[in-house]
Request: fold
Amino acid sequence: MISKTKKKNIPLVVDLDGTFIKKDLLYEGFKLIIRKNFLYIFSCCIWILKGKVNLKNKLFKKINIKSAKIQVNEGVLHFIEKEKKDGRKIILATASLQSSAEEISREYPFFDEVYGTNDDTNLKGKNKLKLLLKLYGFKKFDYIGNSFSDLVIFQSCRYAYLVNASKRLKKKAFKIAGVKIINSEEHSPLDNNLKQRDSNKTETLK
Reply:
C-alpha cells in the first residue's frame, strides 16, 4: 500500500475527451457549428486539409465551447476531487486546444496545470508522452485515459486509470501497465468499494 505522503508527490494527469468529459470536444464543436450554419460543413472539409490542428483552430474561433453543454464523467470528477483533497497535484493534458482546455479549467479550478494542443503540436499519443516524460519522468505520474492513443502513455506511467474503455483496450492495457478501472457514472466515494484483480495487476474503483 502506497503512503499518502508518497502519493502526494505523484501527479495525476487527466485526459479530457471521453475521459474527464463524456464526449470528444472536437465532435461537440462540429455539431455546434453545423447547427449554427449547415454550410460550415464545407468549410470544415477545407480546414482539415491543412491538418487537424488547423481544423480545431478555425472551428473554435467560430463557436463558444460554453454553449456545448459539456457533461463530465461523474466518477472521474469525484475521484479527482478526492485526490485533490488528499493534496495531490492534478494536471489536465489534452489533444483539445490549449484555449479550450483553459476554458474547462476555469469551470473546474482544481487543475494545477493545463496542457493542450497548440499551433505546433497536436498533444496526443507520442507527443503527449514526450511532454509528460519531460515534466515528470518515467513512471513518476499516474494517467487517466480512455483511448488506444493512450497506450503509449500507459507504458510509461505508474498506474493507468481506464474510463469507459473497450474490452480490447483493457486487454492491451493489462499487458503493459498497472491498471485501475474507474466507474465513470459512480457518485459515491471511489475507494469504498475497491476490488483488486491480482492476475492483471488491476484495481476497479467504484
About this structure: Confidence is low (pLDDT under 50) at residues 187-202.
